[in-house]
Amino acid sequence: MEAKQLVQLAEQFGSPLYVYDAAKIQSQYNKLEKAFSRVEHLRINYAVKALSNISVLKLLKQMGSGLDTVSIQEVQLGLLAGFSPEKIIYTPNGVSMEEIEEVALLGVQINIDNLSILEQFGAKHPTTPVCIRINPHVMAGGNSNISVGHIDSKFGISIHQMPHLLRIVQNTGMHINGIHMHTGSDILDIEVFLYAAEILFETAAQFKELEFLDFGSGFKVPYKKDDIQTDVEELGKKLGKRFNAFCAEYGRDLTLTFEPGKFLVSEAGFFLAKVNVVKQTTSTVFAGIDSGFNHLIRPMLYGSHHHIENVSNPKGKERFYSVVGYICETDTFANNRRIPEIKEGDLLCFRNAGAYCFSMSSNYNSRVRPAEVLWYEGKGHLIRERETFEDIIRNQVVMEFETPATPVAVTV
C-alpha cells in the first residue's frame, strides 16, 4: 500500500485507524504453503488471537486455512465466520473443565496441556479425540514474554512427565490423535526449532493412532529494513524432509500442522494516527498523536519496534522525534526516531500493526477503540466501526444514590 492510499483511507474513515492489506495476508499464506510443498498433507491453522476480526477470518477461510483458538469465544468467532468444527483446534491454558467440555460438544479438536485436566477429561470422555501439548524445554522465541517452551513456562506437559502421561492414557483408554508443541515467537535459529522437532518426533513415536503433528509457529517477521527473519524456505526444506522420513518410520502419512498468527498478518497491518502536537523541550522534540497504548500496547509491553512513517510528508527532511500518545502516564511509541519532518495535523503510519495490536487494545482512560479497514482488491472496506461513548457505557449498570438530607442548623 502507498502513502497516498493510506492518507485517503484516514480521510474517509477518520483516525486513529487500523488498515489491513488482504494481498499481503494472501502472499504470506502462499509463501508458507510453498515452503512445505514437499509435504503431502499440510494444515495451516491461523492463530485467531493475533487478529480476530471476522472478515479477516473469512478471508483466510477462503484460502483454505483452519483456525488455532485459545478460548471458547474464539471458537465461536470461527464458527460464525463459517469454519467447520473439524477445521478448528482449541488449545486453552488454565481454563475450567466446563469450558473444555463445552467446546468439545461443538466438535472442535481439543488440545490439552495439563496432566490433571487430561486425566479428568479422559475419564469422562475417553472416545473424544485429544491432542496433547508437550513442553520440549527448548526456548526458541525472542522476548521472554513470548517464549513459551522453556522449563519454567506454564504451557505444555513436560517431556520429563512422559511416564505419567502414558499411564493416564492407558488407564483412561482415551484416544490421542495429535501431538503439539510451541516453542515461542520470533524464532531466529532454525536449528533450535529442528532440535525441538526431534523431541516432538520422539514423543509421537510412543502413540500409535496419531493423525497429525502440530509444530506451533512463532516465525519471525522483519520489523525494519534489513531486519532478520525466519527463513521459512530453509525450514520447509529441512523439516519437510525430516517429517516425511518420520511418516515412513511411523507407517502412516500424518498431517503436518502449523498455527501462524504474526507471520500471516503482522506485515499486512498499518496503524494510522494524526499528530495533535509537536512539543519542543530542553532535550527532546515530542510528536504527540491522537492515540496511545490503549490502541497499540506492544511498544510499552514488549519494547517492540514499529517502523513509523510520516505519510503526509514521506520525502521530507528527516529529524529526530519521540513519538508519544495521549494516555495519562508514560506512553511512548518511539524514542529519538528519525522521521521525515512532522507538523501538527500530519498523519503517521505504524508498520507491522496487524498482529497483537487491535486485538490487545482497550478502553483505558475511557477512550474508544478505532475502526478497522480491510484493503481488498484496490478498495477499502470497513470491517469494524469506530466505537462511541455509548459502547463504553453499554454494559454499565448505574446505581442511584439518595441525596443526603440537608442538616438543620441549630441555634444556641
Automatic annotation (TrEMBL):
EC number(s) from the headed UniProt entry: 4.1.1.20
A biological process term (GO) from this entry: lysine biosynthetic process via diaminopimelate
Orn/DAP/Arg decarboxylase 2 N-terminal domain ranges (all copies): 23-266
Catalysis performed (reactions): meso-2,6-diaminopimelate + H(+) = L-lysine + CO2
Enzyme class: lyase
Family according to the record: Belongs to the Orn/Lys/Arg decarboxylase class-II family. LysA subfamily.
Top-level taxon in the UniProt lineage: Bacteria
Active-site residues, as the UniProt record annotates them: 328 (proton donor)
Positions annotated to bind pyridoxal 5'-phosphate: 218, 356
CDD domains reported in the protein's UniProt record: PLPDE_III_DapDC
NCBIfam families linked to this entry: lysA
Assembly information from the UniProt record: Homodimer.
GO molecular function: diaminopimelate decarboxylase activity; pyridoxal phosphate binding
Protein name: Diaminopimelate decarboxylase
Chain's role: Specifically catalyzes the decarboxylation of meso-diaminopimelate (meso-DAP) to L-lysine.
Keyword Disulfide bond among UniProt keywords: no
Listed cofactors: pyridoxal 5'-phosphate
Residues reported to bind substrate: 298, 302, 329, 356
SUPFAM superfamilies according to UniProt: Alanine racemase C-terminal domain-like, PLP-binding barrel
Keywords: Amino-acid biosynthesis, Decarboxylase, Lyase, Lysine biosynthesis, Pyridoxal phosphate
Orn/DAP/Arg decarboxylase 2 C-terminal domain ranges (all copies): 18-354
N6-(pyridoxal phosphate)lysine PTM positions: 49
Pathway involvement of the protein, from the record: Amino-acid biosynthesis; L-lysine biosynthesis via DAP pathway; L-lysine from DL-2,6-diaminopimelate: step 1/1
